[in-house]
Design goal:
- The protein is mostly helical and about 210 residues long.
- The protein is built from ten helices and no strands.
- The radius of gyration is 18 Å and the shape is globular.
């Protein structure tokens, strides 16, 4: 396994990356503001579960294939972007309540969890990130490289789950500071749908490293 100094440096670097709000954090925050911290936690768990697939792929060397094959990378990018755009359109044009005082039906925790897993699995930037980030903290003289990559990946996913959960609680708590009219109106739906569309466009623009 990596030395203590490398592990400390990895944890410190990972926390810096994770604490800076990125697409994953914004995704969790949007769900938390819209439906509360439980929805945010379910989304965070889904994202982390999906990230485990990328960890396994990086450990097995499959991510390298993804990054060196234009066809494989393109397929993953199109599937991921398409699903995100679908989620955005579905959210923006969700059935409006028939009674003005009745809020639209919230998504179940299972659905939020599933969406998070799919969004994470089909996000090519995660594969790019792991292949660029994890090898910097691998020391071949300390043992088999795949085992070190697996360990670092699992640590990163655990840290991501912790930080995303913290954002979920903070964002979930902030919903109570907003007026009931804002939370029951279309604003949360528009924000969430726009976020999905933004993530989809972001995935489309992701280029395969040369």
């Amino acid at each position: 396994m990596p030395s203590g100094a490398l592990l400390f440096g990895f944890v410190a670097a990972a926390l810096v990356v994770l604490l800076i709000p990125g697409p994953g954090v914004l995704y969790v925050v949007a769900q938390s503001v819209g439906q509360g911290h439980r929805a945010g936690l379910a989304s965070a768990l889904g994202l982390s579960a999906g990230a485990l697939v990328h960890v396994a792929a990086a450990t097995a060397g499959l991510s390298a294939i993804l990054l060196t094959s234009a066809t494989a990378f393109g397929i993953v990018k199109v599937l991921g972007a398409g699903y995100l755009i679908y989620l955005g359109i579905r959210t923006l044009f969700a059935g409006r309540p028939t009674v003005s005082t009745e809020a639209s039906t919230p998504l179940s925790l299972y659905r939020l969890l599933t969406d998070g897993v799919i969004v994470s699995i089909f996000n090519p930037k995660i594969a790019v990130f792991f292949l660029a980030f994890l090898p910097q903290f691998v020391d071949p003289s300390r043992g088999p490289v795949p085992q070190q990559v697996l360990l670092l990946g699992l640590i990163y996913v655990a840290l991501a789950l912790i930080t995303d959960s913290a954002y979920a609680f903070l964002a979930g708590g902030s919903r109570h500071w907003l007026s009931g009219l804002v939370m029951q109106g279309p604003l949360p739906r528009y924000l969430t749908g726009s976020l999905y569309l933004g993530l989809g466009v972001n995935a489309v623009l992701t280029e395969r490293p040369q």
